[in-house]
Amino acid sequence: MEWATYLDELIANKLTLFILGWGADYPDPHNFVHPFMHTDGSFAAFQGYSNPEVDRLIAEGIATVDPAKRQEIYYQLQALYYEDVPSIGLYQPLERRYERDWVKGWYYNSVIPNSNTVSYLYSISKG
């Protein structure tokens, strides 16, 4: 199926099974729970998923500034995700980094974990 047709069918809720990818825009759990779990989230809408308790917890999580309280809320959301199974994650990319001890300036980018492309090497030097 061509991509344009695939998207049209997806948006029209005509696909009984589909696969899509997602990469975080910023390193915060809200960047995942809203699209995948909130009634107004794009992936949740494609899946026909809606849970008022989830929507309430997502609103509470983004409004909470206490890190320990936020963690508790997102753990609750994770448990609901496993319980409701709105979608199935197929894989989580992992990365290993090996470098000489004289390489300086490399840092881990949690938004782009496989950040070993040339465009992200500007901060590295031989120290």
Automatic annotation (TrEMBL):
InterPro entries: SBP_5. One of its GO terms (biological process) is peptide transport. GO terms for molecular function: peptide transmembrane transporter activity. Transmembrane segments: none annotated. PANTHER family: ABC TRANSPORTER, PERIPLASMIC OLIGO-PEPTIDE BINDING PROTEIN, PUTATIVE-RELATED (PTHR30290:SF34), PERIPLASMIC BINDING COMPONENT OF ABC TRANSPORTER (PTHR30290). This is Solute-binding protein family 5 domain-containing protein. It comes from marine sediment metagenome.
